[in-house]
Amino acid sequence: MPDKDEVADLLAAAHREAEPGIVRIVRLVSAQEAEAREPVKLLEVNPATSPSGVLPIAFAADPPAVPFPSVVIEVTPDEYARIQGGQLRLPNDWTLGETLYAAGAAA
Asked: Which of 7, 40, 75, 101: disulfide with 25, CB 3.0–4.6 Å?
C-alpha cells in the first residue's frame, strides 16, 4: 500500500496531466498528518482559475492507488502570494509543506 508521500506525488502528477496550466503544487500539512484519517492535501496554483479564496474540495479515498482521502485547493498566483505572506489563511491550521511541482524547475 502506498504511503501519503507516494499518494501526494501520484495525485500531483495526475493533476498536472489533467490541467497543464498548473504552475505549482504544494503539499499542505497539519499536526495530524501521521493519522490515516487525515487527508492528503494539495494546494494547486493555476493562473487560469478564478480568484475565489481558499475553497477546499474533498475527495474520498480510491483504493488501492489512493488509500487516503484527499483535499485540493486551487488558487491563483496572487492568492498563493497572499497565503505565503499571511494575508490569506489556510483552514484547520494547515501549513505549506513541500513543493511537489514548480513549472520550469529541473526535474
From this structure: 101
Q: Which domains does the chain have, with CATH numbers?
A: 4-102 (3.30.460)
pLDDT in tens, 15-37: 999 999 999 999 999 999 999 89
The residues with which 57 forms a beta bridge, in sequence order, are 72
| Beta strand segments in 46-94, E | 57-59, 70-75
Non-local CB neighbours of 101 within 8 Å, separated by 6+ positions: 12, 16, 22, 24, 25
What separation in angstroms does the CA of 28 have from each of 14, 64, 72, 93, 106?
17, 22, 9, 10, 22
Query: Which residues lie closer than 8 Å to 76 by C-beta, 6 or more apart?
Result: 45, 46, 47, 49, 50, 51
Residue range 47-75, pLDDT digits in tens = 999 999 899 999 999 988 899 999 999 99
How long is the chain?
107
